[in-house]
Structures are given as C-alpha cells and as structure tokens.
Amino acid sequence: MSVRMYAAALALTGATMLAAMPVAAQDWQNLSQSRKFGNESALKVDIEYGAGRLSVTPGTDAQLYRADLRYDAEVFKRPKMSYANGSLQVGLNDGSVKGRNMKAGRLNLELGTRVPLDIALKFGAAEAQLDLGGLMVKRVSIKTGASQTSLRVSKPNRVVCDELSVEVGAAKFEAVGLGNLNLQHLKLSGGVGEVILDFSGVAKQDMTADIEMGLGSLVLRVPRGTGLKVTKDGLLASFDSQGMVKRGDAFYSENWKTAQRHVTVKIDAAFGSIAVEWLDQ
Amino acid sequence: MYRFHSDRLIRVLPLLVAAGVSFLTMPASAQSVQKSKVEILTQQISTSRSVASLRVELSDGRTVDVAIRGGQAYLNGDVVGGAPRGGDLDRSFRDLLESISDSPSHVTPSLMTDWSPSHSNAAATRLDRALEDMMRGITPASPALNGDGVPMAPASPDAPLAPDAAISADGVPAVDSVDRLNERINELQSMVDDLQEDEGSLSVDVTGGRNRWEQGPFHYLMRGLADVFSVLVIYVILFAIAVGVIAFGGRKYVEGVADTARHMTMRSWLVGLAATFLVVPAFVLGIIALTISIVGIPALLAWVPLFPLAVVLSLALGYLAVAHAAGESLAERRFYVNDWFQRGNSYYFLISGLGILLGLFFAASVVEMAGPWFGFIRGLLIFLGVVLTWAAFTIGFGAVLVSRAGTRPLGKAPAMSEFVDEEAGV
Asked: pLDDT of B8-53, one tens digit each?
C-alpha cells in the first residue's frame, strides 16, 4: 500500500510533466443488452462498477432487464455483461483508471418490474443514481468507496424487502423514500462522509436499523406520523434529538406509543454529528 | 377398362404424388409461419470505433450474430464480404444499431425487417436477408420442419439435390440449403468457441485474492504492518542508491544540488515547476528540430533515449539532494560541535533526510493499524506525504537545473579553504 502511496507522489511529478501532452485517445465502446421477461421466479443482480456514472431505474413489465454500458475499451478489456439461470452480472472491474477521463463512462440498468430482485451493487469512484421504486426488491446490498450515491424509492415496493445493507467509505450517501421500500431491516456501515436517511413513503411495517458511523454526519429524516426510537452508543458523536424524549438509554419520539409504524434505530458512531429532522408528510 | 384405368392411373400418379407432396409440405410451410411469432429473448449491441455488432437470441433458442469489424462483415462468425470503416454498409448498420438501442425492445423486429443498406453489395444483401429471415422466423440456419413439426434430418452437403427441392414453399431457392447447412455448422462452431472462451475466462475476484488473515479481526493490524515494511523497503532502497552515488564520486554533485536546494528553495521550486511543464514539449520540439534540420537526424538516435534518461536521473539526483539538505538542516539544529564532527557527513544527512521525507508515509501506516476509525487521519497523512514528495521532486529537479547538476552550486557558504587560500594569497 505504501509503495502505491509513494508511487502516487512520483506519479504526481510525472503527471505535471505530462500535463502539456495531449491526452491519449480513449476507445469508448457501447455495449447494450436486454432480455425479455420470461416468467423468471427471481433475478439476482450483481453489479461491479469501478468508475463513471451508474444509474439503476425501473424498467417495464415486459422486460427482465436492459443494460447500457459505455466504457473505455483501452482500460477495461473484459466488461462483464451476462445472464444465466436467473443471475445477471454487469460491470467493469479489471482495469486501472488512473489518469483516464472516466466521466464519460456510464452504466444504465433498467430492471423489470415483475420479478423479485436480489441486488448487489459494488462501485468505487462513481456517481450513482439508484431508483428502486415500483420494483419487487427482496434484498439490496450496496458497497461503495469514494462516491456520491443517491438511492430513491419513488414508488412503493411490490414485495417486502428483507434487508438493505449499505457500506460506504468516504462518500456522500442519501437514501430517500425508505418507507416505500417496505423494508424490514437496514444495516449501514459508514466510514467518513455524509449520510442522509429519509424514511418517507408508504411504510407497511416496522423497521429496524443498525448504523455504524466513523467520522461524519448522519441525518435521519422521519415522517411525523412515524414512531422513532434511537439508541446511541458513541464516543464523541453529538446527537440533536429534537422532538424526542429520553427514557433509559434510548430516545423516543413523542408519538412512539400511538404511531402505527415504528422505526427503531441503533447507532454506533465514533465522531461526528447525528441529527433528526421531522418531515411533514 | 382395366387398361384404361391403368393408363389413366399411370398418367395421374405423378400428379397425385406431386399433389400429395404439396399437401404434405403445406402444413410445414404453415407451421413456419406459425413459428414466425417467436420473440426476441435477448439482444446485445456492441459499438466502438472498430466494431459494430448485433447478437439476437430468439425464444426458440436460435441466435444470429451480425458484426462489422476490421473492414469485414460477419454473419454468425463467417466473413460475408467487405465493409470498410465509414463505408455505406458500416454507416447504415451503425445507424440500425443506434435505432435499436434508442428504441423499446418491441420495436426491434420492425427495425430489423425494415433495414436495408443504402448501397447494396453482396455482403449488405446477405446481412439484410439474414435479419429479415430471422424476423420471419426463418434464419439461414433454421432447420426445416416436416409435417409433424419435427426438424428434418439435415442432408449431406454432398448429396444431390432433388429436382422438387429446387424451390421451397417459402420461395427461397433450395440450392441455398447447403449454404444454410454450412452456416449452421459454422454457427454451432462459433457457439462452441464462445462457450470455450467463457469457460476459459477468469472472473475477477473483487476481494483481490485476500488471504484469510486479511479479512479477520487483525485485518488492519496486518495491513498496517505490511505498509510499514514496504516503507522501510523503500527507505533502504533509496539509501542504497544514495550510498552508491556518494561512494562512486557523486558526493560533490549531491552536495552541490543540496546546497542550492537549501539556500534557493523557492527559486529551485519555481524552476522545477516550470521545467516539469516544459520537459515534454522540449523533448518533442527537439525531435522535430532535429528531424527538420536533416543533418540532425543521426542525433535523434542519442536524443530520444538520452533525454528521458537525463530527466529521470535529474529527478533522482534532485530527490536525494533534497533529502540530503533536509538531513543537513536537521543536523544543524540538533548537533553540538562534537556531534557535528562525528556525524556531520552525507551518509548521516541522507539517513535522517530520507526519514523526514518518508516519515509521513510511515506514520500513515502506523495509524492504519489502529483500525478504520482513524481513516481520515491516515488519509490526511498520506495526502501530506504525497505533497511533500512531489515538492521534494520539484525542488530537487529545479536545483539540479539551477546548479547544473551540482557543478555550480548557488548559495553555498564559502568553504574554509577558500578563506585560507585568500589569506595565504594576501
């Protein structure tokens, strides 16, 4: 690792020298694949995307998926885009993007709305826009490094989502409409960055959340009609608990006993700030 | 009567047989039409500067692979003719692929059927026909169906064609059947090749092939130790290079550059920064100038390899000189007179100077052992280390240029011997 750090400094010097050189031409390649829905009972989606813009959106009833990938063929020699036995694998993960302009790279994935989905996303230095509204999402796993990720659930999920697991490194992660996801359990592990969790939407059941934060800010946006319980275990993390009452080790919203839907959040944070914002829904 | 009936029967028999054959083939044709309702299961489009390809898989398992690459048009892996890059067929096919990409899936069949290359040649005609046949459910490689809907056994390519088979029910010349069979064989061969390629391909392990310990509770500790070790290895290598330079007569050059870097730091940095920007243009301009001058062309043989080599050596010398200067500066702050006499040498300066330059990386590695919670501090240390190293290279490079590789050091305090000589002269 340190060799790479040291190499980075050398590369910085070299990059200064090369700054006056014309940028090498990149061989941008488009790869598009779609598949018709054929009464599949489930679809497992594995996405590994190194750099560029990532978009996941709901597709149509007639399709199982549609993937449009634009990538630099000079860097990524072997893009992955295959489907077999209810498992879709899409991604780029075998190239070095150092010194390349990856902003023009993109992966747009549309997922069919009639098949239960098990989605696993791994992406690095990417900007990701994920909309899981109106799908049949059973499970979601998101692992991301240095990136900006926006997860939206614009329409209610058609099935119960067992778990949403999120691991973010140095990143900004925003999840909006988690109530629509019909989620049972949220697991979030954050390193350094800003995390916003918005629980708005048409929640049909109670939700639990385990959140581990390193250094950064965590904002919980909760609809006023939802009962919220927060248990915080942290060393130097501040907690803005407006609209909540402390009983024992936990903070409760004033409507905890009367609310029809409950969100129970357990936070383990080292440094940073935690805040609760109430939404008028 | 009997003879009459017999004669008529003999005359009518071929007609009956022909009618029977026609009757039997009619359902097959009808079934072909029925089969034309097969749907597109998957479609894959790939486009780049050099390749444009379309692969379509139907719900009945058949596939068609059309590609234009390297100036050739391919149908199911076989070359069907030329298709130069930017030519009519190439552009027309790319337009089709773009249309398919931009359209919903259900529009694809009509786009493929309606497509016709603007200027037809043999290759264009074959591709056009292949796509249209496929959309009719009759690919060039599709097996014929008998009356029971069972695929008929393919005839041997060498078998003579029956006269009745000259024209098939759908109007396609039956003489193509051999070609179709060959194409089918080639298609199957390409499928086998694809499968073999898939089997041979290695999927990338995103864990990077980590060992078990790397995923255990001592993950960060072990990684930190590995990083500390790698920093130490870099330190030893750099020091060994420096010792080699000094031991083989490079001391005065290292010290000359170091003195320049110490006493004219800002000037060295500015010169180094300008030089790093100008080094590549200078290299290119040198090549152009030597080439234009004609007589300088032989000098290119020396210019092309020696210029980059000189830049690399200058960077290395500059970095070591900056380490030397840093060590010397530290020593001046710490040592008393006796220490200075005992340890005031280039080796000691380099030991401590390289330690200063690599210290931030070392600290980052130590912090990494503490776990993920100090990632921010570690990142900060790495960032500072990178900046410091870049500054060292830039200042060193500039100092090498300013001092002419240490032969004309600037800012150096006069040596005691110079005073002695002057006094002796007086």
From this structure: 545 545 544 554 444 444 444 444 444 445 778 888 888 887 888 8
User: Which residue's entry shows tokens 């026909």?
Assistant: B129
Q: What secondary structure does DSSP assign to B182-246, as a single string?
A: HHHHHHHHHHHHHHHHHHHPPPP-TT-S--GGGGSTTHHHHHHHHHHHHHHHHHHHHHHHHHHHI
Amino acid at A41: S
**Which run of H or E residues covers position B298?**
helix B297-334
Of residues B87 and A108, which shows the higher confidence score? A108
Separation of alpha carbons B49 and B160, rounded Å: 45
Q: Please report, for residues A267, B256, B330, B350, the alpha-carbon distance to residue B251 in angstroms, rounded to integers and kept in the order given.
A: 60, 8, 19, 11
To test the contact with chain B by mutation, choose from A23, A28, A34, A235 the residue with the greatest count of B C-beta atoms within 10 A, namely A34
> Which site among A3, A12, A13 would you substitute to test the B interface, given the most B Cβ atoms closer than 10 Å to its Cβ?
A13
Q: Please tell me the least confidently modeled range out of B26-30, B98-102, B393-397.
A: B26-30
Nearest CA of chain A to the CA of B26: how many Å?
Answer: 31
Distance CA B319, CA A170 (A): 32
Chain B residues touching A8 at Cβ < 8 A: 382, 386
On whether the CB atoms of residues A215 and A248 are closer than 8 A, the answer is no
Q: For the residues B339-351, what does the mean pLDDT come to?
A: 67
Instruction: Of B357, B351, B350, B364, give the one whose Cα is nearest residue B228.
Output: B364
Q: Which of these, B279, B385, B312, B357, lies nearest to A9 by C-alpha position?
A: B385
